[in-house]
## 1
Amino acid sequence: MRIILVVITLVLLSSCAKKVTSINKDQDNILAQNKGYLLLGIQTNLDLKSIGISGQENIKLSSKNIKEGTNYFLLDLEAGNYTIDEVKLNNYWRRELSDEELWQFEITSGKINYVGHLEVVTWGYRRPITKAELVNRSSEALEFLEGKFPNILTNKSIVYGGPGQDSFFEFLATQNKEER
């Protein structure tokens, strides 16, 4: 009986999402062979409690970096497919995200993977209504990286890994090669 309880406890603990925070220093650390950078933009009209992401690693983006306004998360993750599962607005309200294909993204190893901007807008007081959408703002993400993380951007190529197709970053890379 004790062995069963220990096994159940270990399974529950290992399946919990780890809390992560965004990279703050523009220092391109050597990534493990199977890791890439995740770049996620967040646009919201309120401070969020957390954002849950499941995949190769289960992570929870903490409230420290998801304040009202426009924010970005840059962190290293194991390569693979991920899904944004839930947005926790505060201690009482959360938004489960259905239509899984709209919330899926891919991390490619050795690259900066821009996956979109998560827009979360809430209105109403007694019965708040929340709209959440993952939209592509590749040019804004590139401007952010050029301003805040030029060293990482110099050493790593950037790709779009969010829902749908976007060849903006490939087009820019082709243009830069032609100019040299």
## 2
Amino acid sequence: MKTFPESTAPTHPLRIVLCQHSPVVNSRTMEAVLDEADFCLVIQIGSHYMPGSETVVQVRRKGAIVFEQRRPALSLPRSGWKRLLSFPGAFLGYRRFVLSALRQWPEAREAGYIGRAWFPAWTGISARRAGLVKKVVYWSGDYYPIAGSLEMRLINFIFHQIERWVIRNADAIWYLTRRIYD
């Protein structure tokens, strides 16, 4: 548990929204922050490529899970043009799910939103514009080009255009490498 010197101790409640694709918490540093938070809404977006994957919403207060909801993740075709055409519907469906979770918990309006990848950050920017969160942090891993078929190159191009938009519109960016910035 991190303690603050008296002069730097936060005077307001620590409220966080963490939205990500990966497991609910997979970082010791982030786990420590979540345990300190007065309110933390964790949204794990399940992978549409992994059979049995779940989308999870958790509410934590000072590290204790006080609410948890699970549902099966959306599934998309694994390849072909049907996959390409199914992405917009899947993204809008997940966006609607995340915004619904934020509306359900009024404490989120005073929270900082951490989007751990471009899609969760894009959703956070939508939430900020709707007045559902205060600030949006884009937490990025790194630039990861995907080679392959024309379909994959087209998807990759679209993703990178959206990611550039997210970088320009987020309030803060973590783990920004030169490759992402360029």
## 3
Amino acid sequence: MIEVYTKEYWLNELKESAEFLESLYRTTIWDNELEFKTEKAVFIGCYAIRKLRESQLLSSSVCGLNTSLISHPVRVDFIENNDENWYKKYTFSQSNNQELALKSLCNQFIHSKIYSPFLPSGLGCVGFFFASDTECKKHVYYIQLIKVVNIFLSVVHNKSINLELEINGAKVSAKNIKNHT
């Protein structure tokens, strides 16, 4: 349980994580330390949301948020081999639109067997592939980075936040993020 008097510290942590994650759009050099910091921000953020929710310190409107994302099914011809990379297990040419409730989304990250930032060539991090130990047997999820930032800021501000991406050549950023951080 999170005590009411520590709620603001958890929310500040979420806000800092959202700012950090949004900055990944402009990061072109990816190294082990940045990968660690990114994973830490996502997992601590999801854990904070779960603890705030369990402690009944979030409004019902925030607890009721759903997030749209994409799932990719397991390949039909896949034969389990522990030596193979996780991505060889899935059919990325097939995708399904799905919605996950806030609780389910956070639990997928917290219990993830698969967690991988998506770094297209020449760009920074734009999203994450992830799936819990149970869901990875059926599919892997993909969520855009901006949606994770939106979720974190929605919890911080106790209302739905839907930032849009602003693209100016190779420079990508969340439009109006300064209004929410």
## 4
Amino acid sequence: MSEPTKLDREGIFRVAPLEFGITEGKDGSLSVGIAINFQILAQLGDNGQWIDWGAYNVVCEGTFYIVDRTGLVQEKQVKSLIAALGWTGALEQFADPAWVPLKCQINVKRESYNNADRYRAAWINPWDFKPSKMYGVEPARLAALKTRLDADLCAIARGETLPKAVAPPGPPPDMDDATLPF
């Protein structure tokens, strides 16, 4: 098989973890990350269908920080790795080359590093995760937000200035909480 090609675009991909390991922060950082190299299997198309990449040898890497620079465990990231990879939470799994993590999805973003662009996994989800263009906003909630906000948002888009918000009336200046009748 030919040498793998690095991914050259953003998007949502189904992947198989190829290699993984533990990385620690430098220069006083207490961070701990899980570094993973992924084989790209499919890309989510604009029509919501998966496009097979099986004929290509494309890889992408990502580092998922489970402990931040200050030493604080990143619960959301840990839970995403557990759900996506079938990880038990035991660090030694990432040091065991015999462990086979589950196939999953990654969200790839472009980042600039040393004056060059690269594409890296920014988030990880289970294989069957259903990405949404609306980012979790249900249609009924979107309708309610639209009713409440559209007039103001469209006015701003037209270059109009909105009136200043008026603070609700408080007690008269000569009254304090102890003298209020309610």
